Amino acid sequence: IQSTITLNNGTVIPQIGLGVFQTPDGDVTVNAVQTALEAGYRHIDTAMIYRNEASVGEGIRRSSVPRGDIFLTTKLWNDDIRVHRAKDAFQESLDRLGVDYVDLYLIHWPADGWQRAWDDMQEIYASGRAKTIGVSNFHEHHLDELLSNSDVTPAADQIESSPQFPNQALIDAVHAKGIAVEAWSPLGGTGGNLLSSPDLARIGAKYGKSPAQVVIRWHIQRGVVVLPKSTHADRIRQNLDVFDFMLSDEDMARVSALATGVRNGSDPDDFAF
Ligand code: A2P
Hints:
Elements: E1 4-6, E2 12-14, E3 18-19, H1 27-39, E4 43-45, H2 53-62, E5 71-76, H3 78-82, H4 86-97, E6 104-107, H5 114-127, E7 133-136, H6 140-147, E8 156-160, H7 168-176, E9 180-184, H8 198-207, H9 211-221, E10 225-226, H10 233-238, H11 249-256
Parallel strand pairs: 3-4, 4-5, 5-6, 6-7, 7-8, 8-9, 9-10
Antiparallel strand pairs: 1-2
Helix pairs in contact: 1-2, 2-4, 8-9
The structure holds adenosine-2'-5'-diphosphate.
Family: Belongs to the aldo/keto reductase family.
Domain NADP-dependent oxidoreductase: 16-258
InterPro entries: AKR (IPR020471), Aldo/ket_reductase_CS (IPR018170), NAD(P)_OxRdtase_dom_sf (IPR036812), NADP_OxRdtase_dom (IPR023210)
C-alpha cells in the first residue's frame, strides 16, 4: 500500500511521484506517464520548463486512471516570474496539460519578482484551479519572507535532496513551519554515480532490493515526498515497489553517511537561469 502525506490544507499527496525532468516531449514522456499510472503511481511532477506538459496530459488520458485520482504538479518558470505573468503562464500550463486544475502549482525558483508571483498564485488558489500552491528551491530565508507577507502558507517546498546531498537541516526547518518537503534528484540525478555505490548494493541485498529502492525507501522514512525519474518501464515499476520493507535505523544512517555535501544542481541563492 502506498504511503501519503497530508498537506497543510488537508489535501493528500502520494509520497512517491513520477518525476519527468529531462524526459523528452513526445512518446517517451507519454509512455512513462502511462506506464507509471498503470503500475499504480497516482502522482506526476512536471514543470513548464520541462517542455513536456502536453505529453504528460496525453499519458494521463491514455491511462485508464481517472483525472480525479491523480495528483498532478506543475511549476511557474523564472522568465514568467520576472515579467509578472503568473496567471497567463498558469493558464497556458493548464491548456498544454489539457486539464482544468492542477493539484499543486509551484514557484519553480525564487527568481526576482517571486513575491508578486506568490500574490497571483494565491488568487489562482482561491479560484480552485490549483488545489494547493507552494514553492520550489526556497531556502529558509525565502520562506520566512514569504510567510511574513502571505495569508496562505505554501503547502510544499520542493528542494534538492539525495543521499549525497541530504539537505537535512533545510528539511527540518521546512517541516517545522508545517510545510511538506519534496525531494528532486532523489536518486542523485541523471549522470550521477550514486546508484553504483557498493554500500547501497550491500544494504539492498539484505532486503532483496536494488540500490534505487533503498534510496527511495530512505526518503520515505525521512517523511519527504520523493520524485524519482525514469524513462524505463521496469525501473518505473521497481521504484514504486518499496512498501514491503523497512530500513533499520542502522541502515538509514548508512545511507545518510553517503553525504558528500556537494549539490547536484544549483544553490537557490546562486542560480542564474
Ligand atoms: P533512466 O531514466 O534511464 O532510468 P533522479 O530521479 O535523481 O533525477 O535520477 C534519475 C536517474 O536515475 C536517471 O538517470 C534514471 O535513468 C536513473 N534511474 C531511475 N530509476 C532507476 C533504477 N531503479 N535503477 C537504476 N537507475 C535508475
